[in-house]
Amino acid sequence: MKKILLFLALATSSVAMAQETTDTTFVVNGKTIKVSDNNGKTVINVFRQDGEMLSKTTQYSYSDSQEVEQIYVSTPLIPAILKQGERRKRFKANWPFFYLGRSMGAASAFDFNGNPAMHSRDSKSWEWGITLGSAAIPLNKAKTFGIVAGLQVGQVHHHFKNNYALFTDNNHSYMAPVEGVDLKKSYISYNVLRLALMLETERMNFFAGIGASLEYRENEHSRYIKRGGGKTTLSDDININPFGVNLDMKIGYGGFSLYMRGAITPLLNKDIAPKCFPLTIGVGIGL
Fold first, then answer.
1. Cα(212)–Cα(264) distance, rounded to whole angstroms?
2. H runs (alpha helix) in the chain
3. How many other CB atoms are there within 10 angstroms of residue 17's CB atom?
4. Cystine design at 38: which of 21, 94, 152, 268 (Cβ 3.0–4.6 Å)?
5. C-alpha gyration radius of the chain
6. Closest C-alpha among 174, 177, 180 to residue 238
7. Farthest-apart Cα atoms in the chain, separation
8. Could you say which DSSP state residue 153 is in?
9. In whole angstroms, what is the distance from residue 249 CA to residue 282 CA?
10. Which backbone phi and psi does 42 adopt, to 5 degrees?
């Protein structure tokens, strides 16, 4: 009797174990193949070495000895935000293709109170440019944080008010009113080539970054336009510092971004020209 009871107990245990889920894993050509069996239904998944599951086009599963085909369709109509749980896109640099901003000529770094010594007209001062190229290096496995670099070119205009303009005499630059002429506008302009480096984070198409940029300036002018027409160039040498260093910040979503850049080194040679620290707030549009 005892032998019969022991046999029945072992048989019951074997049936219970047969109903439990079992997984079998093996590696072929660097890819991990996982075979799962649950209550007679067998499912096969394939993973890369980094643990990411490969996308399925056709999957065959077996249940109760009947073959069932499941078709997986990928379509651009499904938002990328819904796919991120399954597959993480590569880490990329979110630089705008085109950017446009208001560029103020501050009296000191990150000073929003204007620059009386420069008679700056910040509401009419601006910059624009494009991004020539970019690069990105992820710093975490999820590829949501890393270092990004961007190379940009652009042009900057700083405007003045109250009939003032920037003059240069005997290698010294200074602000003075233009006598006997009613000015429509006066300004200084220059071209920039900028290399920016940032620490950037990106999640669900939202991104934010902070870093610094080094810019090279050239082709500077001091000019005014009088009412009724006629452009006059006062100087092609405004004692500009050819190199400048900025602190950069940005936030955005998708192809749209907001940015702020503040110079931490002066635009002009402060020993022979007025102090001016460009401070820019603008928008960018990506492709």
1. 10
2. 2-19, 80-83
3. 9
4. 21
5. 32
6. 174
7. 125
8. E
9. 11
10. -110, 130
3-state DSSP assignment of residue 190 = strand
| pLDDT tens digits along 47-61 | 777 777 766 655 555
* Strand arrangement of the beta sheet that strand 31-38 belongs to: 22-28, 31-38, 41-47, 58-63, 66-71
The residue with tokens 């009088």 is: 226
Contacts of 2 (CB under 8 A, 6+ apart): none
Question: Model-level pTM?
Answer: 0.68
* DSSP per-residue letters across 35-74: EEEETTEEEEEEE-TTSPBPPPSEEEEEETTEEEEEE---
According to DSSP, residue 88 is labeled P
CB crowding 115-148: b at 16 or more within 10 Å, else e: beebbbbbeebbbebebeebebebeeeeebebbb
Summarised one tens digit per residue, pLDDT across range 15-54 is 444 444 567 776 777 778 777 776 667 777 777 777 777 6
Tokens at 13, concatenated: 């245990």
According to DSSP H, which parts of 46-186 are helical?
80-83
Question: Three-state DSSP class for 124?
Answer: helix
Beta strands in the chain (DSSP E): 22-28, 31-38, 41-47, 58-63, 66-71, 98-106, 126-138, 145-160, 164-169, 172-177, 183-203, 206-226, 231-235, 243-253, 256-263, 277-285
Burial 210-222 (b: 16+ CB within 10 A, else e): ebebebebeebbb
18: helix, strand or coil:
helix
Task: Give the amino acid at 110.
Answer: F
Q: What CA–CA distances, in Å, run from 117 to 107, 110, 134, 179, 213?
A: 8, 16, 38, 18, 26
